[in-house]
Amino acid sequence: MSITRRSASRSVRILGVASASAALALGVAGQALACSITEFSAEATCAGDKGSIVVSDKDGSGTPAVITVFSKSDAGVEKQVGKPENVKGTAEGVTVTFAEDWKPNATYRVHVKAGNKVDEDIKPDLVTPATACKKEESSTPTPSAPASTKPSKPSTPTATPTPSASESSSAPAGAPSNAPSPAAGDSNLAETGADSNTPLIAGVAGALVVVGGGAVYFGMRRRGAKSGS
């Protein structure tokens, strides 16, 4: 069966459309595998009281890239953080860490250079959290001060209070007194004022006793003499 000119032309057109479709599909696939700035991200993290800037690369094409981080002051002055780091991304993601004692609400610019495909900054710039990294609390207990071995000073004995004169002289109520009680006659004499004649009366009574005793003695002696004669 002979192929006509019309059939050959039609076959060429069909082949061209197929080739174009294949080329378009390959182009889309190539673009899908190409490195892009959107596959890079950055964040500020903490490890205890140590701060870090972590950059992630999720480039499925595995294009080698160089990451450089700059801190930006309020005046617009930039300072490079550490040194540039090389990274080769994967679809799962690969990270690279920059040690940085960042301050709250600080701004950092992260630049990515990946061959001749990417040479730009991650947008927007990285702004750190409003709270700085906190120091980790030590779990080791603080040793207590050793007990003092110095002997304690003996306490001074408290002096026993001496009773006052009024307390020592006063006898308890109801306690018997050793002093002799005054005679009833004495008390009466004291009341009438007759106690002023007491010495005179005592002297006369004593003289009478002596005279009486002498009289009795002489009387008994005379009676003995009479009875003897």
Could you give a quick summary of the protein structure above?
The protein is of the alpha+beta class. Helix content is 32%, strand content 24%. Among the domains are: 37-127, Immunoglobulin-like (Sandwich), CATH 2.60.40; 189-223.
Please describe what this structure looks like:
Among the domains are: 37-127, Immunoglobulin-like (Sandwich); 189-223. Helix content is 32%, strand content 24%. The protein has four helices and eight strands; from the N terminus they run αββββββββααα. It has helices at 5-33, 165-169, 184-192, 198-228; strands spanning 40-47, 50-57, 64-72, 78-88, 94-99, 107-114, 118-121, 126-127. Strands 3, 4, 6, 7 and 8 form a five-stranded antiparallel β-sheet that branches. Strand 6 and strand 7 form a beta hairpin. The chain starts with a helix and ends with a helix. Mean pLDDT is 75; it is low at 23-32, 168-176 and 187-194.
